[in-house]
Amino acid sequence: MVSELPWDARTGTLKREMAGGMMNPACKHAMEAALQLKHIHGAHITALTMGPPMAEEVLREAVAMGADRGILLTDKRLAGADTLITSYTLARAIEAVCPHFDLVLCGCSAADSETAQVGPQLAEELGVPGVAYVEQLSIQQGAVVRMQRVADDFLETLEMKLPGLVTLTTSKYAPRYVPLSGVQDAFESGEILTLDADGLGLDPNVVGLKGSPTQILDVFSPTTGKKNIVLKGAPKKIVEQLLEKFDDRIGGAAGKDLKVDEQG
Amino acid sequence: MNFNPCMKHKLVRKTVRRFAEAELGPIAHDIDRDARFPWEVIEKMRPLNFFGLQVPKEYGGADVDSISYAITIEELSRVCAGIGLCVTVHNSVGAYPIVKFGTGEQKERFLPSLACGERIGAFCLTEANAGSDAGGVETSAVRDGVDYVINGTKIFVTNGGVCGSAIIFAITDPENTRNAASVFIVEKGTPGFTVGEIEDLCGMRANPVSSLFFEDCRVPASNLLGRAGDGLRVGLAALDTGRIGIAAQALGIAQGAYDAALKYAKERHQFRKPIASFQTIQNYLADMATEIDAARLLLYRACAFKDAGQPFGSEAAMAKLYCSSVANRVTSLAVQVLGGYGYSREYDVERYFRDAKVTEIYEGTSEVQRMVIARNLLAQLT
Amino acid sequence: MSEIKSSIWVFGDYRNYFQNRVTLQLLARAVDMAPSIDAEVCAVVFGHEVDEWIGEYIAHGARKVYVIEDPALKQYSVEIYTALMERLALEYRPDIILVGATSFGREFAPRVAKRLGTGLTADCVGLDINESGLLVQTAPSFGGNLLAKIVTPTSRPQMATVRPGTFQEIPHNYEATGEVIRLPLPAGLPEDRVRLIHSERVEQRDQKLEDAAVVVCGGRGMGSKQKFKKLHELARLLDGEVGATRPVVYSDWIGTDALVGQAGRHIRPQVLFSFGISGAIQHTAAVNDSNFIIAVNKNLNATMMKMSDVAIVADANQFCLALIKELKKRIRD
């Protein structure tokens, strides 16, 4: 976890080098799902990540787990991209290194900003169908992927023809432990390709911070100046005050409607 | 000289830490309290190469570099020292002597089952009357036809209660002062080889330390490791490597205790402030962190020398001596920082405190380590 | 089409209506912000047989509702709805589009943003208009440890998703009127490449303490084992789980796997009720990831009270009983 505020107010980017980088948990589950599919159907797995040079470690870990190769997109000019531009950049990279892909698997969201947007936007950019928050998937006859998920209290079974994109939750596909020989081999003989913006033919004005439609104005800690509300008095009265102010908050968390009943 | 960890070592650390925290973390307290060896976790460790760290790939091992090895033992011990001990003893003195001194036939016969953890290895040197004085060993191995017959009792054998094979240090030629001893590999199930009761120890309680009894135990001469009379050479070489593992183990204990003290100091409030804001506590934490760092650098230097093929015995002794003393100082301070909670058996810190002590005793006491270092220093005078 | 006024659009997510009121909450926020940019608050509804929702949205602040109604739109479809929203947005050019961060919204909104080439901030905990008339989107960053203020300076529309429960809806006003603009299903819509094979409502699944959105924690301040048991009833009413402190577990008022603390379980609920707990470090270290803490204690200076968002000075047991009584009145099943 980050101990110092990694916000560089000059350039308006997040200093990712300061955080002890690690593979995003949801992506690990996606990696595990890929390995299980490979085990059943046979497949070539490419792990792809965009980040500073030290992100290579995440690719080595993917290879140690069983990916066939890793692609590192690294370029200072790509830094500071928001999800729109990130998905654009990733799409170009996929088209360059793996144009005939069958399936793109992503973790449903990233632990740092948890927007969960890159997956759907990447599908749009690649022009393939996509489904998010899938819990389980299987490949059927005729290159069709069948998916199960719970979305907004509906248990759904969906299908789409490949090529497609799926984002996975962390509810299933618990990532396997990496054997130490795997780590060893990933560094000795693992195939890692590095690409930069020029290598992909990207216009620097379109990518990275420059190309991103959203901009971070400021980053701050939520607990500074925490003031709480004190309620005193008869329990019945406090209950009414509490619910008057926070019925949506409590109700939202509980999934219930706590509004006063008109008839009551 | 690059003092930053390379990417591979960072990944090794994360990999082992993840396993240790998930699998050993939840049970470490209870298996210490109950002195239980967690077979269910050992089962999960087998396919991950924990038992083949220093065995060549052709025999099913991972054959990692020494720093990766040290990191692995450190991270296991940081969560559960008793299991860290099991793994390092198995690797350094249970399997590695066979790698270094075994014949092709012996390697084929013993290494695969050791490397995959099917068999856990042990090393028997200490006896009731022979601890630091290895020359005082009384266990005998008498030639009889194509076999040797072993008689004697080994005590305080780490992994004794669960070992599948053991490496025994025994006297084959009492008259010969320099080449009196030899080293044998004895497999569990050999008639005459029995395991005694598990010791009730202050720390490392998850490890089944026990006595091993040899009563007219007959082993074929093909189980002799090295040549007859090679005992001292094989034994000392094994201990050199073992020292790196124990140093790493002590380092892990120190690191675990320090991590707990740091976390507590930031959260615990007294006099309306976190205790980490008081200078005394800050001094303690600074001292702990500095000593741990120094210990780590000594350890990695010994590892680097070993991997480079340089003599590393004295450096390994320094690492073991220093890491174990740091572990004792740091764990004592950690208990102090946690105060009453540090003394309570409900929390982990007192376990680290108990576990640390033996690192100054086994695999060569701190006094013996000093002997080794002094011998090396004085040899350079002549 | 001459659009003089700028507009704030709110996507009508009416699946699970009653439980899910995020659309109404967003309408309320839009109504709050609209005056500063002289904007009109509109709702957008796609589906089949949607009159009830249109009425609700107007009653809760929408001055205009764009409706595309067709049997083909009965099931929510990310691909189809994205295409519809894209066309509407390109034609009517709203300034801001707000979408509730339901599972659907979190897939739908990014795709719309992508199609329109604009920015989107997810899971906003705050929305405001600044002096320059820009929508300032406050959202969690770094796993929720920090907050970021984000703007979309030039691209339009400015888009944001917001989790249910972030904003308060305004009381309904059934006298309110609004313009309902019914549009036909456009021709040439893409075929949905994702087929829904099967869909069924699920009961609330078995929750672990660590996953629960609502946790009710009790301490010695509850008084006795009998009184402590009432917390289970409260938790049930709110679809939550019960946790406890060390002394409570040791006194056998509840089983050991309810222990919330450093030696027990670490929780991160959206709402934590803390009844009669002083707040020893072993406990607070395991609850300080909670989103919103309501603490009840006779002692205002207890650590748990200082950590809370709402500190209620009262007897824990009495307050619990009063809360249960009121909730039973309000919760429609």
What do these coordinates show?
The complex is a heterotrimer of chains A (264), B (382) and C (333). Chain A is of the alpha/beta class. Chain A has two domains: 210 residues, 3-Layer(aba) Sandwich (Rossmann fold); 36 residues, no CATH class. Chain A is built from seven helices and 13 strands. In chain A, strands 3-4-11 form a three-stranded parallel β-sheet, sandwiched between helices. In chain A, strands 5-10-6 form a three-stranded parallel β-sheet. A three-stranded antiparallel β-sheet of chain A has the order 7-8-9. In chain A, a hairpin with a 4-residue loop joins β1 and β2. In chain A, α2 crosses α5 and α3 packs across α4. The relative contact order of chain A is 0.16. Chain B is α+β, with helices and mostly antiparallel strands. Chain B folds into three domains: 114 residues, Butyryl-Coa Dehydrogenase, subunit A, domain 1 (Orthogonal Bundle); 109 residues, Butyryl-CoA Dehydrogenase, subunit A, domain 2 (Beta Barrel); 148 residues, Butyryl-CoA Dehydrogenase, subunit A, domain 3, CATH 1.20.140. In chain B, 53% of the residues lie in helices and 15% in strands. A four-stranded mixed β-sheet of chain B has the order 1-4-5-8. In chain B, β2 and β3 form a beta hairpin. With 333 residues, chain C is an alpha/beta fold. Chain C has two domains: 178 residues, Rossmann fold, CATH 3.40.50; 123 residues, TPP-binding domain (Rossmann fold). Chain C starts with 5 loop residues before the first strand and ends with a helix. The mean pLDDT of chain C is 89. Chains in contact: A-B, A-C, B-C.
Number of strands of chain A: 13
Helix content of chain A: 25-40%
State Rg of chain B. 21 Å
At the fourth level of CATH, the homologous superfamily of the largest domain in chain A is HUPs
Question: On the 0-100 scale, what is the average pLDDT of chain B?
Answer: 95
Q: What oligomeric state is this?
A: heterotrimer
Order of helices and strands of chain B: HHHHHEEEEEEEEHEEHHHH
- Distance, first to last CA of chain B: 31 Å
CATH top-level class of the largest domain in chain B: Mainly Alpha
Low-confidence stretches of chain A: 1-19
Shape of chain A: globular
Largest sheet of chain A: 3 strands, parallel
Structural class of chain A: alpha/beta
Largest two-chain interface: A-C, 84 and 101 residues
Order of helices and strands of chain A: EEHEHEHEHEEEEEHEHEEH
Shape category of chain B: globular
Query: Average pLDDT value of chain A?
Result: 83
Low-confidence stretches of chain B: none
Task: Count every beta strand of chain B, where a strand is a DSSP E run of 2 or more residues.
Answer: 10
